[in-house]
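Aim 2 progress update. The chain analyzed this quarter is reproduced below.
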Amino acid sequence: GLFLAADGKPLPHYSKAKSESALSRFLNISNWSTRKLIYHLRQQALEQINSHCPLGRKAFLQVIIDLTTLEKCGKFKGLNNLISVYNGRRGFHIVILYLVVGKWRIPWNFRVWRGKGTASPAQMALRMVRNLPKDFTKKFEVKILADTAFGTKDFINGIRKLKYHAVLGIGCNRKLINGTPVKLLHRRGRQVQLVGLDFPVTLSWYYFKRENGQFVKRYVISTKPIKASTISWWGKRRWLS
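Predicted structure tokens:
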């Protein structure tokens, strides 16, 4: 539940109830049927979310996508095809998709990144978004929230084809079609066209406070034209939810 909470502190060493090694052993050994467990939890989740149907305009269905690393040390013969190195960290790299509607915040799906030469985290995330139940998503206004790891051109184009609205983080070195990096822009709320995209997006940014007290400037785009302050608010929701 710790790394599925989507509160910006997903690593096992943040747990106050169990040690990091105890959590690691729990994740390594399971005697239950994972497929049956997932099916049962999804049925319960759908019932809970479908119960949240307020009168008036469609409610927002926030689809939050996160990449979490469970670090591993040593050799594990049975896990050789699951443990890899990503951004200098060795262990399980799990792409998790959460659904947030009203007071409900529910982990819906996950995939394990298996290293270079396999589907990227962004590709796996797009597949999970495509597989969301259509009769379910029609009831809500779907909004995709994800950080820089998923701000690739293929992911953005794929979300647009699905006709979903996305608020995504991008790196400061992303360039416009005229070659200008976004870090050189000084006005939030501009309609810009990034390299690799055939449509304009709205650019904004906000300052994220790290645990050491330092603030980091994070760039965020919206595939739908909205105010810069609204884009920044939704961008922060990715970390606060």
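The chain has six helices and nine strands. The CA atoms of residues 163 and 223 lie 10 Å apart. These observations will guide the mutagenesis experiments scheduled for the next reporting period.
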